[in-house]
Design goal:
Blueprint: E1 14-15, E2 26-27, H1 39-42, H2 48-73, H3 85-104, H4 110-115
Parallel strand pairs: 1-2
């Protein structure tokens, strides 16, 4: 709250890992239920909780790949510690804006192909 981090609009959620709690706008996987994608290669999801965790893990995997592309393209993202929070936030937003421009304009990009 002190950094004015916005809550998502009603019906939208931030995808979080198990370190968070399920609260308004923050969606975490079920605890003590299979979660990692490799766990579902041997046996498919059966219960509604396993199906939810499987979908959550797939979405999180997409997010991790997107950050992989960003960190490969913008090495500053690996060296943010000495900057104040508001500068870190603005750098991340700028990196995403440039990244999204490249995607939107369909500029041939080796990083996207590599992380696909």
């Amino acid at each position: 709250p002190s950094n004015n981090f916005p809550f998502p609009p009603p019906g939208k959620y931030y995808l979080c890992d198990a370190a968070y709690t399920n609260t308004r706008g923050f969606m975490v996987p079920y605890r003590n239920v299979r979660y990692w994608l490799g766990d579902f290669r041997r046996r498919r999801a059966m219960t509604k909780e396993e199906k939810f965790n499987h979908a959550h893990a797939k979405l999180r995997n997409v997010i991790e790949r997107a950050y992989g592309v960003l960190k490969a393209r913008f090495p500053i993202l690996d060296k943010m510690a000495p900057y104040p929070f508001n500068v870190q936030r603005n750098v991340v937003i700028a990196c995403f804006a440039v990244n999204n421009f490249i995607r939107k304009e369909k500029i041939n990009d080796e990083l996207f192909a590599q992380y696909e």
